[in-house]
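Entry type: protein chain
Record version: 2
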Amino acid sequence: MTPDTLLRWHRQLIAEKWTFARKSPGRPRVSPEVTEPVVKLARENPTAGFDRLQGLLANLGRKQADNTIKNILAGRGIEPAPRRGKRTNWKEFLRAHWETLAATDFFTAEVWTANGLITYFVLFMMEVSTRRVRIAGITTQPDAQFMTNLARELTNCEDGFLHGKSHLLMDRDAKFTVDFRTLLKGSNVEPVRLPPRSPNLNAHAERFVRSIKEECLNRLILFGEPMLRRAVSNFVKHYHTERNHPGLANRIIDPDDSVGRIDSEIVCRERLGGLLKDYHRHAA
């Protein structure tokens, strides 16, 4: 038996936990051949309403109901005219708020406990311009009280992660409750709820989730909450002080004095039993 065998069995058990009976199929998806021309015309003609878009499509030999056009645009997060033409585009918004912009998201980890396989929810915050991350909380019950307490901690005027930030990007997960968002607004942090199915609008946070999953959590079988916390803590330290980031010109977020040295012995530093490694020059 090899470690890969154990990990494969572990992944199969997790997959079985989240496998549910399929429901009867609903309305079939609209094909890309239909959606792409609608989206292209809507973006290039920000003042065109549904009826005008319907006419433009008819000129191209494509007959579409105005309700279909409405649903396609809503699914892509494109607002109807005339609001569409008056909105600041995403690139302009990011450029204007880059230094005070934060992002947040949840990721999950499956942990073996005395009660079986339990799902833990991990909430993290990211300073987008620097990619610095803080783990805000780890729980099996991310309820309203949990989120309210975190909002107060994160906006604390002394050491709150969101102190001095102007906007917080988040998806439309119901765990980001009304009370949570209200407390943020009370501290001058505007919650920006992203359109449905738009992970690219929170790409930096999504990339952190992929990194911690692929490089750490998916390669471990976690037994108990303390092991999960240890794994997450070690990865965050590695992420900040040892890992190079292509999105930051391949730099380390918080490098120590050993980075760039050429005058001493090369040593390997390991975390989590060698799962995470980095190489540096030993201090003289």
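Comment: The longest strand covers residues 101-113.
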